[in-house]
Design goal:
Layout: H1 3-18, H2 23-33, H3 42-49, H4 56-59, H5 65-79, H6 86-99
Length: 104
């Protein structure tokens, strides 16, 4: 699917769920997600991981699921990142290990 079309769909989906007041936030998240591969968990990853830095800072890494879990734990423990809910953390870990995982 064409990337701009995906971003439009993402913004529209957030608007449907959250209402027009969320347009600015939806556009911000969609913009931050632009550097990420399409897939389940992309929005959650953009929301959590790009709140502090650009996607390019982590999208070039290739880590196992355990490696990504360690990165998230380090961000929480050493850099005061808010701990995501377990379901969100699991979604992010699945997204990162699927799209930016270790080579087989």
């Amino acid at each position: 699917m064409h990337k701009p079309a995906c971003l439009v769909r993402l913004v529209l989906a957030v608007l449907l769920v959250c209402g027009p007041a969320s347009l600015g936030r939806a556009q911000e998240v969609a913009s931050r997600a632009a550097g990420l591969v399409d897939g389940h968990g992309r929005t959650e990853t953009a929301e959590v991981c790009t709140a502090c830095h650009a996607a390019g800072q982590f999208s070039g890494q290739r880590l196992s699921r355990n490696g990504w879990a360690l990165v998230i734990s380090t961000m929480i423990d050493e850099y005061e990142m808010s701990e995501p809910e377990d379901s969100i953390r699991d979604t992010i870990l699945t997204y990162l290990s699927t799209h930016f995982g270790s080579a087989p």
